[in-house]
Amino acid sequence: MTVFDPPGLKIRSEKLTSSTLEEGFWERDDARDIAREMASLQARIDKIEKVEREFEELETLADMLSDAEDVELQAEFYERAERLENDMASERLYVLLDEEYDISNAVVTVHAGAGGLDSQDWCEMLFRMYARWAESRGFETLILDELKDQEAGIKSVTFEVKGDFAYGYLKGEQGVHRLVRISPFDSAHRRHTSFSSVEVLPILPDSVEIEIRPEDLRMDTFRSSGAGGQHVNMTDSAVRITHIPTGIIVSCQVERSQHMNRAIAMQVLRSRLFERTIRERRDQIESLQGEKRAIAWGSQIRSYTLQPFQLIKDHRSGAEIGDVYSVLDGDLDRLIMAYLRFAKTGRTVGSTGSDTAED
């Protein structure tokens, strides 16, 4: 089943609907995940059926125009045809979002690399870029953990992006991002190169089983950071969980309740353990096949150059965009589309100018 497979979507929707009629369904751990998937499937089905109906009506209008010249009817035809074309263009991306967890919410972590204040400022710029992109799509962004620097920028931030296909959209952002600019922290106004790494994980449905033994966990509590004044947290509600066998550490301080912070941290830990398992399997297969991949801090996936010229280049898809500041302000769709096409087809974008990430 794919997102543009109406029969498959309907079969899946009917199957899920039938499961909700079973006795004790709403007591199941995955009931909420199933209800969410049903709503998303119905939205996809409704959208496809709307496009099909509009296409049929346009065919009827075209037949009417071939028999008689009607200026008003002709204007209506071209207006509706253009609107349908725009609707189909906006839906085209979903063809590329057919992997198992693409529909899930995403957990994104941005870490500042070596480079002091410049890298910390770059880390904050990336977070703002993703937050603005999410806002433009009507998605919700929730900061789970943030480590600010007293002087400038942030050292790391973990946040959840809530919305249909959030993980599918953002999964290609994982990797090292490089910024080249005149440093605002250098009194000599020299050009600096900064790095930040981005990690993207899906929020897993409750039905996905990840074994986590209580004895493998160490939980520490601390006081959440805040704005101060009447909003300061006077209790140790923030939670840090260490998975001892792997050394994975997750923190959450978004809620005032220690219990809620622990639940969210455990959710993120499940995603990170899942991603680690998948990565280990992939590395094992590639080792058996004799394949080698460069996994290094210098192997950036994308470069953002502000000086001596302005250009963003994705080193995987080949997409280039000259309007750097619009991207940094959240206009990521062209880069996202270019990467998803590359990941699906292996074809890179031609380098012909600032519009190379366009259709």
Q: Helices, strands, pairings?
A:
Blueprint: H1 6-20, H2 31-67, H3 71-91, E1 106-112, H4 117-136, E2 140-148, E3 154-162, H5 166-170, E4 175-182, E5 191-202, E6 217-222, E7 238-243, E8 248-252, H6 258-289, E9 302-305, E10 311-314, E11 320-321, H7 324-328, H8 333-345
Parallel strand pairs: 4-9
Antiparallel strand pairs: 1-3, 1-5, 2-3, 4-5, 6-7, 7-8, 9-10, 10-11
Q: What is the count of β-strands?
A: 11
Largest sheet, described in full? 8 strands, mixed
Overall number of structural domains:
3
Multimeric status of the protein: single chain
The average pLDDT is 81
* Helix-residue proportion: 40-55%
- Which CATH architecture of the largest domain? 2-Layer Sandwich
Q: Helix/strand-derived class?
A: alpha+beta
Q: Quick one: overall form?
A: globular
For the terminal residues, how far apart are their CA atoms?
A: 25 Å
Strands of the widest sheet, in order across it, are: 2-3-1-5-4-9-10-11
Please describe what this structure looks like.
With 359 residues, the chain is α+β, with helices and mostly antiparallel strands. The chain has three domains: 6-96, Methane Monooxygenase Hydroxylase, Chain G, domain 1; 106-203 and 316-345, Alpha-Beta Plaits, CATH 3.30.70.1660; 214-289, 2-Layer Sandwich (Double Stranded RNA Binding Domain). It is 41% helix and 20% strand. It is built from eight helices and eleven strands. The strands form two sheets. It has an eight-stranded mixed β-sheet with strand order 2-3-1-5-4-9-10-11. The model is unreliable at 227-234, 291-297 and 351-359 (pLDDT under 50).
